[in-house]
TrEMBL record:
GO MF annotation: an example: complement receptor activity
Biased composition (Polar residues): 614-639
Subcellular localization(s) per the UniProt record: Membrane
Coiled-coil intervals: none
The protein's name in its UniProt record: C3a anaphylatoxin chemotactic receptor
The keyword Transmembrane is assigned to this record: yes
InterPro entries the UniProt entry points to: Formyl_rcpt-rel (IPR000826), GPCR_Rhodpsn (IPR000276), GPCR_Rhodpsn_7TM (IPR017452)
Transmembrane segments: 13-33, 45-66, 86-104, 125-145, 165-192, 204-221, 331-351, 363-384, 404-422, 443-466, 486-511, 523-542, 562-583
Topology within the bilayer: Multi-pass membrane protein
SUPFAM superfamilies membership: Family A G protein-coupled receptor-like
Length: 646
């Protein structure tokens, strides 16, 4: 049975989470824009395939995370051991070979300008990419053939094969491509100096950054792997222990390189950064603007939203082992919540807190996003606990603290939403008061009172939370649990929901009385927010209330089955907030689509190739990723764990 995770193991798993969150969003955006939205060019083909290579690895990183939580014990069988290894190594070779192809393409475009203008076609680029994928598959086959499950570990079958593959991987997957890449950009520099086009070398800041990132992320890993082979060959046990200790940190660099690609290849372009900053600030200011309040003389309605989290006392007694499909689905929802919530709520906090003009609306949205973001930060504990079948490894204090943060998020989000609803209602019924007395100071005071009230409402859940039999649960008193469930339903759902519903009914009555039907269009968003709040929370509270009577009516089996799905709804609501508050605004969607497409087209445009007679250079971006992402077991047991690395 897996024991408590060490600090190094937790750090390594955290890097997996960061890679997953940034990689899904960044590479997914690049794939969507280059594959479906922007005009197809040679550059867009390169970037599309590079993003696909990284995205493929991101999709299987869930297996690394689960294995990391289980102390490298492999629960997915021999086929999945080979398949995940294949995907990881395929990603490494495809990314590096594509980066090499891009480097040669850039070199040819500076030395053979006429050829590049006439013969550098989309068909040739697609053929090269296809050949790269075929070559990558062939290069990956030896790693798959010699991979198997042994003693509940996904490892290479013999030490001699492991040594051969390490050397082969270093030569084919790093040294040769790196020499070609370095030579290509040296040739580009020579050409630029010869033609005295120094001003066109500015984009090479990006190129140098890409090469340095490639070198920094991959070279330590390959050195560590080669040192491992040397240590085994010479029986240097102490040296081997040092190599094993640095293994997790080296592997983290390799993993991070996959999610760094969108940043290194795109976001370092000065023009991209400028346009992206302007466009995102513009569209968020439009979404949060005071003019969006309905039925006011000078304010139309914005996308009011609801935020929530949840705190549940599920007590599962099964020992850690292979996860069921329901458990895997539930953990997947945690990942989605984490990835979307970090990016979405983080963006809202950054813009409303630091970039846009402070308004009453921006204060509401800032606090709502903070409430969700707080919960997102502790979701890592839910994920780890879910992987361990609800076994709690973090002690009594963290049990209480995580429970406190979760319940605080629920109350703060719902109370803030209630305050927003009342504010909207007052702004439609008492227009003169809203124009003269609705100040920033009052909004900040209300938010402060909401947080104080939320903390006070959360205290009972913390007092009665403790670790018992390695589970973070409420104490054994059934009366206490029933009281908290009813209290949570009344204070955290029913009363706020009645106030919210009443507020928007009053707004509708006021709009109808004033015959301002045209200004009711924003209420599509408001209705969607209320429905999302109801859909995500009402089933959860009903299930919790049914739990109180399940034992007396033989409902417990059914309640336990539907519990994970209802909890997923509650979790998803936290990451849905940026969508419900902002992205449903038609003007926002239109401008965001235009702006993101514009900046990505700018970053990937053919004009970025330097030294063309008809194409000025802006941001000559390279792309590279990696796929080895070595399985973090490296070598802890001298005869087997040395063979677990990809």
């Amino acid at each position: 049975m897996p024991g408590p995770l060490s600090s190094i193991e937790i750090f390594n798993i955290f890097i997996y989470f960061v890679t997953f969150a940034l990689g899904i969003v960044g590479n997914g955006l690049v794939i969507f824009v280059t594959g479906y939205k922007m005009k197809t060019t040679v550059n867009s083909i390169w970037f599309l395939n590079l993003a696909i290579a990284d995205f493929i690895f991101i999709l299987v990183i869930i297996f690394y995370i689960i294995t990391g939580f289980n102390k490298m014990a492999w629960h997915f069988g021999d086929f999945m051991c080979k398949f995940v290894s294949f995907v990881a190594v395929l990603n490494m070779f495809a990314s590096i070979f594509l980066l090499t192809a891009i480097s040669l393409d850039r070199c040819m475009s500076t030395w053979v300008i006429v050829w590049a203008q006439n013969k550098r076609t989309l068909v040739k680029a697609r053929i090269i990419c296809a050949l790269v994928w075929v070559l990558s598959i062939l290069c990956s086959i030896p790693f798959v053939i010699n991979r198997l499950v042994k003693h509940n570990r996904c490892v290479y079958n013999t030490l001699s094969i492991f040594k051969s593959l390490v050397i082969y991987r270093f030569m084919v997957g790093f040294l040769i491509p790196f020499l070609i890449i370095a030579s290509s950009y040296i040739a580009i520099g020579v050409r630029a100096k010869r033609l005295k086009r120094g001003k066109k070398l500015k984009p090479f800041r990006v190129i140098i950054a890409v090469i340095m990132a490639f070198f920094i992320c991959w070279f330590p890993f390959h050195v560590q792997q080669l040192c491992t082979v040397i240590a085994f060959k010479n029986n240097w046990s102490e040296f081997l222990n040092v190599i094993v200790d640095i293994g997790p940190f080296v592997n983290c660099l390799v993993h991070l390189n996959s999610c760094l690609n969108p940043i290194l290849y795109v976001f370092m372009c000065e023009e991209f950064k400028k346009k992206l900053k302007q466009s995102l600030l513009l569209v968020l200011e439009m979404a949060f603007a005071e003019e969006h309040l309905p039925s006011r003389s000078s304010r139309a309605s914005t996308c009011s939203g609801l935020s929530e989290s949840q705190e549940n006392a599920t007590n599962v007694t099964t020992l850690p082992g292979p996860l069921s499909s329901i458990e895997i689905f539930n953990i997947f929802i945690y990942f989605v919540t984490f990835a979307v919530g970090i990016v979405g709520n983080g963006l809202v906090i950054f813009v409303t807190g630091y970039k846009m003009k402070t308004t009453v609306n921006s204060i509401w949205f800032l606090n709502l996003a903070i409430a969700d973001f707080i919960f997102i930060l502790v979701i890592i504990f839910y994920i780890i606990t879910a992987f361990n079948r609800m076994v709690w490894h973090f002690g009594d204090f963290m049990c209480k603290f995580v429970s406190f943060v979760a319940v605080l998020n629920m109350f703060a989000s719902i109370f803030l939403l209630t305050a927003i609803s009342l504010d909207r209602c007052m702004s439609t019924w008492v227009i003169v008061w809203a124009q003269n007395k609705r100040t920033l100071v009052k909004a900040r005071i209300i938010c402060a009172l909401v947080w104080v009230l939320s903390i006070l409402c959360s205290i009972p859940f913390v007092i009665y939370r403790l670790v018992m039999d390695k589970k973070c649960i409420y104490n054994s008193s059934q009366v206490t649990f029933k009281s908290l469930v009813i209290y949570r339903f009344m204070v955290g759902f029913l009363i706020p929901f009645l106030i919210i519903a009443s507020s928007y009914i009053a707004i509708g009555v006021r709009a109808k009385r004033l015959k301002r039907g045209k200004k009711l269009k924003p209420f599509r968003v408001i209705i969607a927010v209320i429905m999302a709040f109801f859909i995500c929370w009402f089933p959860f509270h009903v299930q919790q209330l049914c739990t109180l009577f399940a034992n007396d009516n033989n409902w417990s089996d059914f309640i336990n089955v539907i519990g994970p799905f209802l909890n997923c709804l509650v979790h998803l609501n936290s990451c849905l907030n940026p969508i419900l508050y902002v992205f449903m605004c038609e003007e926002f969607k239109k401008k965001l689509k235009q702006s993101l497409l514009l900046v990505l087209e700018t970053a990937f445009a053919e004009e970025h190739l330097a030294f063309r007679s008809s194409r000025p250079s802006t941001c000559s971006g390279h792309s590279e990723s990696q796929g080895l992402k070595a399985n973090d077991t490296t070598i802890s047991s001298a005869n087997e764990d040395n063979k677990t690395s990809f």
